[in-house]
Amino acid sequence: MYGYSGRILHIDLTTRKSWTEKKPEEWYKLYIGGVSMAARLLWENIKPGCDPLSPDNPICIANGLFAGTPVPVGGKYGLASKSPLTGFMGDSLSGSWFPVALKRTGWDGIVIHGASAEWVNVFIDDDRVMFRDARKLLGKDTYETEEAIREALIDDQVRSATIGPAGEKLVRFANVTNDGRQAGRTGHGAVWGSKKLKALSVRGTKGVVVADPETLMKMSFDITQQAQGPYTVKYRMLGTATNVLNMNKIGLLPTRNYQQGVFEMAEQVSGEYLEEHHKVKKIACAQCPIACEQVSSANQGLYAGAMTGIEYECLYANGPNLGIGDMNAVIKLIEIADKGGMDAMSNGVTISWAMESFERGVFKKEDFKCAKYPDGFEPNFGNGEAAVTLAEMIRDREGIGDLLAEGTRIASRRTDAERGTVSYQWAMHIKGLENPGYDARGLKTFSVGLAAGTRGGCHNRSAAYDPDIQGEVDRFSVDETRGKLAADTEEYAAVYDTLPLCKFIRRCFTGKADRAGAWPAIAALINATTGWNFDYDAVDLIGVRAHTIKKAFNIREGWTRSDDHLPYRWHHDPLKEGASAGHVVTEEELEYLKDLYYAAKGWTPEGLIPKAKLIELGMEDVAEEIGV
């Protein structure tokens, strides 16, 4: 095969043995790579119904088809396990040098089984698998861990995916980090920590063989040129942080735990302010001509010297959503998350739940005792020092940080059961995953995209906010078109997540971010790499199949229609100011939207997948297990 080795590496941490599984070319044509292939490997290797933090939950890694080739933004890999936050599909993407090094080892994917008796750093050196003692790495942050491994192996070409102290402590929203990038959102770091896997390191010396290198080089050069033009200027200049003022303008910038959609200090935590006052440099992932990440530093006050990459989603969660208008404190919060190996979004939203719970009297000052503040402290909205302390407590599971490390769903349920309160009403999650930086009360199409998302509240797996924000539909109303819109944008996104390609490249094929522009070019890239004969329809099916295998996994794990929900606040608490004031998503509206969405997907009214549809997608074994 071109573009693939045809080999999946299996590693058992319990027995410290490894073996090779060979996959046929037809299997690769169905699942391609990235999150689709990782999800399929998870389907094949997990014990259904297992505890996400048990040895029966495997770590499944699938490389990208274009990793190690000239294809722009193609240096990505997918990661899948059962999520300890949601109990459903946990799939993530990350990129840069780790997947390139993995590609050069000659493995298309890795499945890690069992759990180690002692902390371990698994090192894959081409065909060799070594189990290195990782006890000396414990307590090191994600960046320190990567560097320590390179120094120990005396080779700066070794690339590692690691966990930080949060993963070691089983914080349920802990990340896996490589090259400063995060495989985040669904708690992979906790899964790795439960297996005592501190790091996975790779060194590859093999070449990547493609079917038509001349065509691939020419296409890659042309796309790179487009990526240096107007279609990506937003990302090159300010990165995604430019969305702060955009969302504030339309009244949907999550503020003080989504109580408001307008932040009075938005200017001070905007991408524009970040660029002018805190910019250090811009950096790019491997194979990327865009360079969207804004590396920024705190330059005064308690947190002077803190430095990390800043994007909109972590900026909203640790700034406006905490009522914090001091960019220095925001940068410090994100640095704690990145180095500690925590999801900055979930961390910020969880802290905002704790702040609101304090302001409503659910928690008292004495609930926030810690070594730094033995008498406790008062975590009001806007208190940057309190937020930083809480982030550190979560990372270390100190005091109330042990509760908050469980995420908003578990934390609110435990609190309500113990104290007779109703804090679930301001726990801003879907399926247990904390929500992204788009308030669905003023984005009706996106509301069903979020509610139905297979991994919970996620802006990356559904692009249904786009027709709302771009004015293609009235974002405050619902009609019969919204189900298909949500389904189409979800499957569109799934194509990019499967190859995987960064979605920031989506306009660089023809200038339009749609199927008609991208699919012929993507088919040509696939064919030049593999020698296949993919066409427009075959590319379209990549997204359908990718989403279907994730949905099938959730169904097998016990999903029901009631799991496709929105937070209580979005149903019952209208926004009171700004351009989206007065709006909610009623429960009746959501049920109607779910009916439309399930019908557009070709599912039953209960949201189950018919056997015939699964068989049509080449998933006969899945049909036998969960088809109706």
Describe the model:
- The chain folds into 3 domains: 7-203, Aldehyde ferredoxin oxidoreductase, N-terminal domain (Aldehyde Ferredoxin Oxidoreductase,  A, domain 1), CATH 3.60.9; 241-430, Aldehyde Ferredoxin Oxidoreductase Protein, subunit A, domain 2 (Orthogonal Bundle), CATH 1.10.569.10; 440-566 and 586-626, Aldehyde Ferredoxin Oxidoreductase Protein, subunit A, domain 3 (Orthogonal Bundle), CATH 1.10.599.
- Helices cover 40% and strands 13% of the residues.
- The protein is built from 25 helices and 17 strands.
Number of structural domains: 3
Broad shape: globular
Q: Summarize the main sheet.
A: 6 strands, mixed
Quote the distance from N terminus to C terminus.
35 Å
**Helix content percent band:** 40-55%
Kindly report the spatial arrangement of strands forming the biggest sheet. Answer: 2-1-6-3-4-5
CATH third-level topology of the largest domain: Aldehyde Ferredoxin Oxidoreductase,  A, domain 1
Low-confidence segments, given as residue ranges, are: none
